[in-house]
Amino acid sequence: MALFNRKSSTTAVAEAPAVDPALAALTGTYALDPAHSSIGFTVRHAMVNNVRGSFGEHEGSLVLDGTDPANSSASIDVKIASVDTGIADRDGHLVSGDFFDAEKFPLMTFRSTKAEQLGGEAYRITGDLTIKDVTRPLSIDLEFNGSATDVYGNERVGFEGSADILRSDWGLTWNAALETGGVMVSDKVKLTFDISAIKAAPAA
Which of 137, 117, 136 is closest to 126 using CA atoms? Predict the structure, then answer.
C-alpha cells in the first residue's frame, strides 16, 4: 500500500486521482515511539571495518497527509549524550569536544521541508539537519513499512531508511593518521532510521 497517491502524469485536463480511503485514514499526527524505534550510524574505522552505534534517547513527530504529501512533515530531536557504540571509552570520546561536544550542543535535530514519493513504497524526505552549531540540508530515503493497530489499540505506522553524510560538513573533523596510511575514522557516515510512530488521538 502506497502512503501517498502518485500524481497524474500528462494532460492538463486529467482529473485528480481518487483518494484511497485506507490512505486518507492515515492522515494525522504521530509521535515517535522510542521503545520501538532506532536512530543509528555506521562509520568506517581504521580503514578496515565498520563501527555501528545508535542514540538511545530521541523524540519527534510525523504529520502525515494521505491525500497530499506536500502537507506531510517530520521533526526529530536526538540526545547526543545517549550515544552507544558498545564501548564506554569510545562513547565518552564521541560526546567530548573532539566530536559532538554534547555538553555545549546536547541535541541533534532534523526539521523537514519537503516530502515526495519516489515510486511504490519509496519516499524521500528533505530537511535541515543541525549538529553542533551547523545546519545543512539532508535528504533521507525511506521505505514505508505499512500501518497496523497494535494489541493496545494504538494506530502505528513504520518507516525505515538511511542517508549518507560527510561528518566534516557539520564540523566533526577529529581524526588520527595511521602508520600504514589513511585515517582512523572515515569522513563518510551512514545514518540509519527505523521508525515506529503512534497516531495521536483526535483533539476533544
Answer: 137
